[in-house]
Amino acid sequence: MKRPRIRFPRFLIILLLASIILPSGQLQAKEEPAAAFPSLKLEDGTANKVDVFNKDRTTDQTAVYTRKYGERTKPFDSGTVEYIVSGEIVVVKNMKGQNGTYIPAKGFVVSAPAAEALGALEIGQSLQPVGLNEVYLPPNYAEIEGVTIGIDRLNGVRGESEVVLYQPGFGASTQTNPWGMEITVENDLVTHVVSLSNPTPNNALVDNNSTIPAHGYVLSIHTSSKYFKLLDGKVKVGSPVKVVFSQEEEGLTYKTVQTGFDDVNPSTREADKMIIYNRMIDERTGTNSWGNEVIVDAKGTVVRNGGNNSLIPEGGFVISGVGTTANWLAANVSIGSTVRIDQIHKKIIVVFTPESYLNKAQIELENAKLGLKFSKEHFLDVPYTEIENKIASAQTLFEKAHAKLESVDYSGLLSLLADLDQQASDALFMNYESRKVETRGLWRRPTETNIEQVRAHMDKIAALHINSIYLETWWDGFTIYPTTMKETELNPIYEGFDVLKAYIEEGKKRGIEIHAWVQNFYVGQGHTSPIYDDHPDWTMLSRSGRHYSMGSDRFRHYFFNPALPEVRKFVLSLYKELVQKYDLSGLHLDFARYPESGDFTNDFSYDPYTRSLFEKKYKVDPIDLYPGDKLWEEWTRFRIDIINSFVGKVAKEIVPLRPGMKLTAAVWPDYVGSPQNVLQEAKNWTDNNYMDNIFQMSYVPDAALLETDVNNSLALMKNHGFVTSSIAMNMNLPKSVIVDQVDTAYRLGASGAALFEYESLFESGYDHELTIGVYRNEAIMPDYVTTKPLFMLLEEITRKTNEIYVPLNGISQSDADEITRGLLDELKKWDKQKLLNRSLVLPLRTYVMQLGSTIRNHPSIDAEVKNRIIPDLQRSIKIMDIYLSKTNSKTK
Q1: What SUPFAM superfamilies would the database entry show (predicted)?
Q2: pLDDT-derived band of residue 17, with 50, 70 and 90 as boundaries?
């Protein structure tokens, strides 16, 4: 059909031609020339002239002051108003001029006549300097390749998005992970550059960990910092560098962050969207557990960061996100901050000032008091006197800090606020119980090249009361120990150092178990490895013929084919050498599976050998099969059994080579979907009694999701072994959420938690809150072989009865004596026994069952005391049931 001819008006044709010919922007109003004088631009776009900069003003002038002027402005009268501005946002409005206004190291102060336009500004409104570039310079910065780089801290742990300058006093090297770039400088010239993007031997991820020169420094930039993209690949040896240090202390914190929001009260919360909920919809946000939420009260103060389906305060609101927005909220919004919502520009503005410390402390103190009350009402095993002392100390500090802020006396205020913040926070986390028998695992990819480094890292781990390390021993196609296997070798990053031997030796000194974390058929992340390149016939193929799996992390992941006899023989021989050579506490299987299948259009195991095996049995080439086809379930089962048979061989042929060594595995917690998606059937391993402990990988943002995974894992494992909940340290979750997940896993019946992983744990600063809370006490590993864990569980019941339940009037002294005396008498019968045996377990189990029934039906014991004692008895029964399950299996 012929299209009708369209005629355009002449003026429109001219306009279109102009848009093609003229440079961008010339069709619009002519751009304003650069400002002839410095000014301050308000939210409505109006400009207010700045009369003086870092000089004394007269009453009719507007001035801007930075720290170069001094620590504070001069006193002023009622005709003047002054603002502290940080990040182009007003954070403080000062109308009391007797002591002037504090000038922050990061930010500036505006002093203006109160009767003019600037006098009407309020906290949270924007104020943009124009023609005043000097106010943007941070107190410490570096200039390199034409880029000015703000330095976030000197000589500290490099966190997310941060720039850290390391000086010789920090130590021999920066001790940083691979996720960044580092510029070594001597005599104002670059002498060395290392980056995540630099090629390394065998394409392995290698720590930055630059040597700090005796007469220089190292500038360390995290990959998520905006400066990484600006400088990566551009900085060369010999480039000049200039560093400027503030002569003043950094001083009090005045910080603003802002971000946009997408919607208010939507029916669904979508990924990567920032949402605001208010009481116009309901009392709660109604969100699922896959995000993070910030609760803001009617005063605009943040009272909580963490959780989902939050209660919306009267007159307040909740900011909610999933994915990137959830991460942003966790990383940027502190409790005690003030939040302003700019509805016109759809912005969320967060302000943190010294007063925010007081807000935060007040909230945490109130929560600590409520927590202490809850602990007493529920007879929890927490240090009551220490918590009361912390609360009292924090209350005293709060009053001192409040008085200083009221009188505008900032001398010593910085350390006072920091101390207050720590004391109030500590009081809150000390209300968590710390158990004496618990799995406290930590995954660790070793990077050390000498014994001193191992000892330093082991000391940090031991101080956290971790009792088991899952040391990455076979990864990226290399070992971490000298091997005699001709197909592989010790990873060259270790420079010949036997790091596994060092960890085992140092672990024994500290009572920490070392388990070899091995990756089976997974031999390359983001790159191939020499063993992979040397054996192209061993590779796993996808349906389309691809030799790798593309993960959500956008890395290529390389696997060997688990069906090939020569591959299985190699991996089993490697494990045989490993367990015969080293005194390991356990072998920890990871990647006991295939790559993810996705939508099954490019799933795996379509190499000629595997296809021929299946075709020989079923007369069908599996490459022609898809979900729903007649033999699809058989093809799925065929591959599942390849993995299951391998795990069975490890359990039957490798583990017995070192008596007492445990077999554990990291598993996907979706026990229904995993056999289809990654061809991992953990139920087969537990039903066959192969596993001593399964670690369900619950890398989730909310304890509610963890609860489902733990309960499903316990149901799967039954009495065949223990369950440990894996918790992610690398998701930027609030510290309260991490501690709550550790506590929740144990309360639900898991043997404890394993933290993924070492670098994220310490770099994110989770260690302090764990150490004063759930990991306050040392703990021994649960075990069904030795008597110590079982006896300690039962002895702890007697201790808690005498130290907590009786003093808090949960049980009478006479009833307590009857219970504890009988329990201790029973344990004395077996006090010389070091190993569990049936003659011990069977009568003790009967006694504990009877004791539980007696306590459960006792009329005068407080119900909450029963709720404390019964779970402890059940844990002791669990150990005995696992023992009986394992010994019955061996007998069969």
Answers
A1: (Trans)glycosidases (SSF51445)
A2: very low
SS3 518: strand
* pLDDT > 80? residue 256: yes
Specify the pTM: 0.85
- Both tokens of 850, joined, read 């009877």
CB 695 within 8 A of CB 664: yes
Angle subtended by helix axes 565-581 and 632-649, to nearest 10: 30
Residues 6+ apart with CB under 8 A from 568: 562, 646, 649
Pairwise CA distance, residues 767 & 591, whole Å: 28
The answer to whether residue 892 scores a pLDDT higher than 80 is: no
Q: What is the CA radius of gyration of the chain?
A: 32
Specify the 3-state DSSP secondary structure of 788.
helix
Nearest CA to 474 among 458, 490, 450, 487?
Answer: 490
Contacts of 620 (CB under 8 A, 6+ apart): 614, 631
Topology of 141-244 in CATH?
A: Jelly Rolls (2.60.120)
- Among the four given CATH numbers 3.20.20.80, 3.20.20.70, 3.40.140.10, 3.40.50.2300, the one describing domain 439-598+641-772: 3.20.20.80
Whole-number pLDDT of residue 24: 36
The length of the chain is: 892
Query: How much is the average pLDDT of 416-440?
Result: 96
**Which of 91-95, 193-197, 737-741 has the weakest average pLDDT?**
193-197
Q: Residue 622 and residue 140: Cα distance in Å, rounded?
A: 63
Beta-bridged to residue 111, according to DSSP, are: 63, 82
Residue 389 has a CB neighbour count (10 Å cut-off) of 13
Q: Is the dihedral of CA 330, 335, 336, 341 positive or negative?
A: positive
Q: At what angle do helices 499-510 and 451-463 cross, to 10 degrees?
A: 40
**Residue where the block lists tokens 């002591």:** 99
Residue 572 structure tokens: 């089993």
Give the per-residue pLDDT at 763: 86
Q: Name beta bridge partners: 755.
A: 442, 727
**Both tokens of residue 221?**
């930039």
Domain spans, the chain? 51-124, 141-244, 255-352, 356-405+417-428, 439-598+641-772, 788-891
Query: CA nearest 662: which of 577, 589, 762, 714?
Result: 589
User: Residue 89: enclosing H or E segment and its boundaries?
Assistant: strand 89-94
Q: Helix 838-856 to helix 863-891 angle, to the nearest 10 degrees?
A: 160
Helix (H) or strand (E) holding 770: helix 767-772
Taking the C-alpha atoms of residue 333 and residue 355, their distance in angstroms, rounded to an integer, is: 15
Per-residue DSSP letters for 162-224? -EEEE-GGG-SB----SSEEEEEEETTEEEEEEETTS--GGG------PBPPTTEEEEEEETT
Distance between CA atoms of 190 and 217, rounded to whole angstroms?
Answer: 10
DSSP 147: E
Q: What is the pLDDT of residues 227-255, one digit of tens each?
A: 999 999 999 999 999 998 765 555 788 88
What is the pLDDT averaged over residues 156-181? Answer: 88
Task: Using DSSP, state whether 389 is helix, strand or coil.
Answer: helix
Mean pLDDT score, 612-629: 97
